[in-house]
Amino acid sequence: MSIFLDKNSKVIVQGITGREGGFHTQRMLAYGTKIVGGVTPGKGGTRIESGQPVFDTVKDAVEATGATHSIIFVPPFAGADALWEAHDAGIKLAVCITEGIPAHDMLRVVNTTAGMRIIGGNCPGIISPGKSLVGIMPAHVFKEGNVGMISRSGTLTYEIVDGLTRAGFGQSTCVGIGGDPIIGTTFVDCLRAFAGDPETTAIVVAGEIGGSDEEDAAAFIKDHIADKPVVAFIGGRSAPEGKRLGHAGAIISGNTGTPESKVKAFGAAGVPVADRPSEIPRLLAERLKLVPA
Amino acid sequence: MKLMEYQGKELFRRVGIPTPNGVFATTADDVRTYIAAHPGSWVLKSQVLMGGRGKAGGIKFADDAQQGETLARELIGKTLKSVQNPAGEQVKSLLVEEKVDIASEAYVSIAIDRAARKPVVLVTAQGGMDVEEVAEHDPDAIKKYWIDPASVYTLFMDYGANLVEINPLVLTKDGRVIASDAKVDLDDNGLYKHPDIAAWNKAAPADEDQAAAVAIGLGMSNYAKLDGTIGVIANGAGLGMGTMDAIRNAGGAAANFLDIGGGAQAELVKKSYNLVTSDPKVKAMFINIFGGITRGDQVAKGIVEALAGDDVRKVPLVVRLTGTNAEEGRAILDRAGFVPVETMDEGAARAVALANGSN
User: Fold this and answer.
1) A239 contacts in B (CB within 8 Å)?
2) Domains of chain B: total
3) Does the annotation count B107 as an active-site position?
């Protein structure tokens, strides 16, 4: 098993004929993802070079292909509409790659799309190694296995996963939840799913400064995850207050979003926080030994 | 985009929130002329984004035109320093406002609550204070609505704000309710919906780092100057922050945060190198790339091109290149005489040693 998707998940690409959408469609197909079609308004009835049909609307695409998953590559101003269209067409999980969607647009979207899981925006997507990739991650660093990974960052995920893979820890599913202040799926949502996934035996949470998602994650781990070791990392521990660093959500505002608060929260939940990504495999190995076989 | 007080008040007036009478001034002559034409007691408020402005001496009181001019000369050009902002911020303009007789003060704000994913409104009768302290010590001190709360909400929603704060909202002795201060932070991602306000930032960028980033084609928050000596270029915000942290773990300090984003081409890498080294504090540079969408060969090409220019400030350079097209990239660096390091920890340690003057 894996969380949120499996090898049979049928996926459409919103923005399939765009530069990014087209490029990543081919990479996902090469990985084995079941891309059953795509959407570009005005290009319905055509096919992309590799043969997948293009539809004018998500509704047409879902009716014709039975797709349950969507990955969105549209410009920021169209992000909210793309998510609403996916929701109204019955999509169950939408991965929103788009960076730069206004926070107020996302506020309205997350409060009006019950029944559809949104990953992102401003995220690298989701991968279940060996099964399916619905995202833009470089697939070669991932390996099939039992570690669940959740991260607010893209490249930091690759850095950490590369270390895990080299140390022999494959991954069940890796979710990049996105670096924006308002996102569809939080650490807690992913932790809840990993807790119920028998294939996931350990979890890595890679957070960063800003917001309180890490504190919420720590509280959830303390109360609900006893049988799966968790190791955490916090990016931006050397960052000053008040500077927004790359991600719209990565900012320490007064007493909110500080690394100290996050490290403390994980500590209280018995979760070790690695000082550097390269320490994560060792901490994971130590924790796994603590769990009775 | 954080707005200056005078800009926030401009938005207040647009939605019908009363503000004190006054004028925006950039020279001492303007201040003298205005007070001469409007005799009375005036407050000169330095227009800066930093907190702790009053304690830093950024607010002065003038009773006539001559005093106003003298104080304005003192303030304009002065660098204010506070606990919140030890590096300081230079005063470039003033807001001259009527001195109001305050009967009582309140606090009103509306912000995005990230965890609840909803707007959150705070109102307390104990204005003028640190609202976090009030919330902690006297959580029941939340009372009346003195202005139409819908006007604050309208501003928050219509302009896509991260925060609208009025602290204090004052009741004057002559019975008026006015916003005495304005703190407004608009979402950068939503600015395209308000070109007139985006133009304020273009005309006079409040944040020099943001202006420098946009000038070379980076996102507004992809570059931030810090206090250390080691320049940082990374792809992705998370890896950028991770690289800063790795440098600190190795005993050094980053001179900046710079995220070249995804899929950067050689030209952007070159411009980023020049931006980072334009800071005289930079004594060594660490370029840390984990290729995903970004291709290692493009980054390597950018590095080699950047260093080929005669007008380039050359600092000791450490490169870590892995992921997509890393082999091709390493070959390009190799031909130019660079030896890339293998890991982030190794690169950070090497950069710290180079900045300290050892090999």
Assistant:
1) 241, 244, 257
2) 3
3) yes
Catalytic residue among A24, A69, A87, A247: A247
Q: In this structure, are B136 and B265 located in the same domain?
A: no
CA distance A162 to chain B (A): 9
Superfamily designation of domain A137-293? Succinyl-CoA synthetase domains (3.40.50.261)
Looking at residue B340, which CATH number applies to its domain? 3.40.50.261
Q: How many contacts (CB atoms, under 8 Å) link A and B?
A: 161
Same domain, B266 and B166: no
Other residues' Cβ atoms within 10 Å of the Cβ of residue B350: 20
Indicate the fold that domain A1-122 takes in CATH. Answer: Rossmann fold (3.40.50)
With contacts defined as CB-CB under 8 Å, which chain A residues touch B86? Answer: none
Distance, in Å, from the CA atom of A126 to the CA atom of A194, rounded to the nearest integer, reads: 14
For residue B190, what is the DSSP state? G
Closest alpha carbon to A125 in A102, A92, A154: A154
pLDDT tens column, A198-214: 999 999 999 999 888 99
Residue A244: DSSP 8-state: -
Kindly determine whether residue A159 and residue B242, on different chains, have CB atoms separated by under 8 Å: yes
Residue A73 has pLDDT above 80, yes or no: yes
Query: What pLDDT band is residue A90 in, cutting at 50, 70 and 90?
Result: very high
pLDDT of residue B264: 78
Which B residues, 255 through 274, put their C-beta within 8 Å of a C-beta on chain A? 257, 259, 262
Residue B143 pLDDT more than 60? no
Any idea what DSSP says for residue B2? B
Q: pTM score, two decimals? A: 0.87
